[in-house]
């Protein structure tokens, strides 16, 4: 999870393009390395390592199979100033589906484990229209800073509020154009975004939102992110010093592009 900075902070204009953050070097069969680091002592944004892990898995899958789901666990804090190694295991290549597991490693320690599934494009019954109440047009919303090194532009209508730590309904787009006809890059970009902000609200006003614990994303159609997407986080659950919430990602036509859930540390400082 990445906290949206205070509203008065200036938007970071020095962040690298999202396409640069997704770029990996192939160093051996099933072995990849991230290429982008920052010259600062900052934690690695969880969405970035998830997106890179998905890219690594996708680069081992035959052309024509798009990612349809991922499930990951954040095990340690990553360092934004160091590269990450991704080790991919091929669990299965079937007639329609491919399954991959990936481990993300920094300094010999595992920071993320994730499973991904890919499928061939098929036609079938669809029910993807969103029932989410629409937000006003993004051009009429207020831009909020996404934070250091976050390659996103986010806009909100009503935030901050007394009940919300972070925006739970917002428009978002990448800070650069994504490559055409590259569904893997678009899926990875959406996965990158799904760790932004958080869907847990204040209860007593003394809660502390900590790091993400686990994360899952489902892609309902061929990923394509060429314009603003609307993100809506639903009501979450808090218990046992953990918080969980669901979310939907909707395009400008009201179609649900992706769904997500996330669990994170949620403690009370009282």
Low-confidence stretches: 1-13
CATH architecture term: Beta Barrel
**CATH 4th-level superfamily:** Acyl-CoA thioesterase, double hotdog domain
Category by helix and strand content: mainly beta
Q: What share of residues are in beta strands?
A: 35-45%
Which range best describes the helical content: under 10%, 10-25%, 25-40%, 40-55%, 55-70% or over 70%? 10-25%
Helix-strand pattern:
HEEHEEEEEEEHEEEEE
Number of helices: 3
Largest sheet: 14 strands, antiparallel
Radius of gyration: 18 Å
**Shape estimate:** globular
- Whole-number average pLDDT? 88
Number of distinct beta strands: 14
Number of domains: 1
For the termini, the CA-CA separation is: 22 Å
In CATH, what is the class? Mainly Beta
Looking at the structure, the CATH topology is Porin
Organism: Rhodococcus wratislaviensis (Tsukamurella wratislaviensis)
GO molecular function: fatty acyl-CoA hydrolase activity
Protein name: Acyl-CoA thioesterase II
Family: Belongs to the C/M/P thioester hydrolase family.
